[in-house]
Amino acid sequence: MIWLTEWAAYLPQMMSGLGVSLLIAGVSIVAGYPLGLVLSVMVSARNLALRTLALAVVEIGRGAPALVILYLFYYGLPKFGIAFESITAACLALIWNSAAYSSEIMRAGIQSVGRGQLEASSALGLAQRHTFWRVVMPQGMRSAIPGLMGVAIQMFQGTSLAYAIAVPELMKSAYNIGSQDFNYLQIFTLAGLCYAVISMPATWITVFFEKRMARHA
Amino acid sequence: MDALSAVLQGLPMTIVLTLSAFAIGLVGAVPLAVGLSSSNLIIRLASRLFVDLVRGVPIIVWLFLLKFGIQIGTFKFNPVAAAIVGLGVVSIAYLAEIYRGGLQAVPRGQGEAAHALGLTRGTTFYGVMVPQAFRIVSPSIATYLTGLLKDSSIASTIIVAEMVFQSQSFARQHPTVEGILPYILVGILYIALSLPVAYLSRRLDSRMRKAVYA
């Protein structure tokens, strides 16, 4: 019970950290998903240079740990005179991450659209861009929804890595409070609960969507 | 190639972390997966809560909780132990979910046939269900392993001297342009390390499909 009253005292400071976490997650999703869409189309482009570039961006974004990309932006690039504020570096790194992951999911979604759909649209005489935007995309993106929701949760959790470059997000504010009183157990438990309170329901909603989609498939 | 040798100094630790946590996960997930598919509601809900809670909290929080939060008498986790236990527990939760999916994907008829043949429940589970489930989930397990390899980099935040930690200390000693090298090299190394696992999983994938659906 003592924990609860102390938690109540810490909560305001934690909430401002949570706000920063949500902001970074939001930016990485809002900017990352459209980029991911562009990448998912580029990956199957006819132009070799475009295709290679897109593949490289996707494979690095997925293959290298988010922490490494974060460090690359925050500690690496300044050595070339390109310096970012820590929160900008965190956003850029996570945008790359979310673009790479979401592009794979969207690509799979687009590929899941049946051939018959394409053949039918060409038989109906639809222009290529109409086929893509009106036939392939609506169906492909629909089946990508659960996967994209999963990536969004992953991004939210990934914001905790921004602690490592001193972004004042949830984890950092927890650490700051903890290093005043050395009550780390309490404070990190509270931080964990803050993350869980958002991630767990989000996961349940995702699972619900997955099941509903599976029913209609 | 000072940067490369600096990064490579952390390679053994990265591999130790990944494989130890993976081993803990592979074994520990078995009872949890059984719990997740138990017919007892309380056991099922408790397992579900554990899995969702562990997965709902970022790994870095678990590592800090273990490294700084746990103190029993004079016992405290050293960084490596905290990282292995933390990554291990997270692996247990993720792999249990993968196992459960596999067990569910085994056709019902298999269990019913085993029952009709008079096999005991234990034999049905370990002799009929588990081998088939394992075939179905082995590609997912390989995918998880590559994810775990990347997640082991988070241990650098609690001062475990793995690859990312070594890159950091090299970069700190080299404020010139050279200082960006370790980050690029370590990124390439992670991708290179996950290639054999990805290759293996693709091969397993096609072979298992043949074996299951032949």
Explain how this protein is built:
The complex is a heterodimer of chains A (217) and B (214). By secondary structure, chain A is an all-alpha fold. Chain A has a single domain (2-216), classed as Orthogonal Bundle (MetI-like fold), CATH 1.10.3720. Helices cover 82% and strands 0% of the residues of chain A. Chain A has 8 helices and no strands. Chain A has helices spanning 2-42, 48-63, 66-76, 86-111, 115-123, 128-158, 170-181, 184-216. In chain A, helix 1 (2-42) packs antiparallel against helix 6 and helix 5 runs antiparallel to helix 6. The longest helix of chain A is centred in the N-terminal third of the chain and has 41 residues, at 2-42. Chain A is flat and about 70 Å long. The relative contact order of chain A is 0.14. The model of chain A has no long low-confidence stretch (mean pLDDT 92). Chain B is flat. With 214 residues, chain B is mainly alpha-helical. Helix content of chain B is 80%, strand content 2%. In chain B, strands 1-2 form a two-stranded antiparallel sheet. Chain B has a single domain (2-213), classed as MetI-like fold (Orthogonal Bundle), CATH 1.10.3720.10. Chain B is built from 9 helices and 2 strands, in the order ααααββααααα. The mean pLDDT of chain B is 91. Chain A binds chain B through residues 59-60, 63-69, 71-72, 75-77, 79-80, 157-158, 160-161, 163-164, 171, 175, 178, 184-186, 188-189, 191-192, 195-196, 199-200, 203-204, and chain B through 52-53, 55-58, 60-62, 64-65, 68-71, 150-151, 153-154, 156-157, 164, 167-168, 171, 175-180, 183-184, 186-188, 190-191, 194.
